[in-house]
Amino acid sequence: QVQLVESGGGLVQPGGSLRLSCAASGFAFSMYTMTWYRQAPGKEREWVARITSSGSSTNYKNSVKGRFTISKDNNKRTVYLEMTSLKPEDTAVYYCNAKLPGTQNDYWGQGTQVTVSS
């Protein structure tokens, strides 16, 4: 069955770094656009970073540009989010999403908590 499993979250001090991973199974990963979203307490879920199926193109929310990097390894069926210079406002549950463009194939992981605090 389709699975997206996030890992790598945790507690980090402001200015620190974390690397999130999302391992995929049960679907044709190499064909899917992958997106990282986040949801802070009391706020709506928002997209953070997106990468095309081949990994050739990326987009970022303005507030994370220059600090976060999304990458995709189709051989390992994994998408990553490298987060640096973390701020308290980056605290949220981070989710990965897989979407096949032009279809209703749209899958979500269970999320991983990132807490930035001193």
Distance between the termini: 40 Å
- In one word, what is the shape? globular
Main β sheet profile: 7 strands, mixed
Enumerate how many helices there are, as a single number. 0
Compute the gyration radius: what is it?
Answer: 14 Å
> N-to-C SSE series?
EEEEEEEEEEE
Mean pLDDT: 97
Structural class: mainly beta
Contiguous low-pLDDT stretches (5 residues minimum) are none
What does it look like?
By secondary structure, the chain is mostly beta strands. Strands 2, 4, 5, 6, 9, 10 and 11 form a seven-stranded mixed sheet that branches. Strands 1-3-8-7 form a four-stranded antiparallel sheet, with no helix packed on it. The chain has strands at 3-7, 10-12, 18-25, 33-39, 46-51, 58-60, 68-73, 78-83, 92-99, 106-108, 112-116. The relative contact order is 0.31. The chain is built from no helices and eleven strands. 0% of the residues lie in helices and 51% in strands.
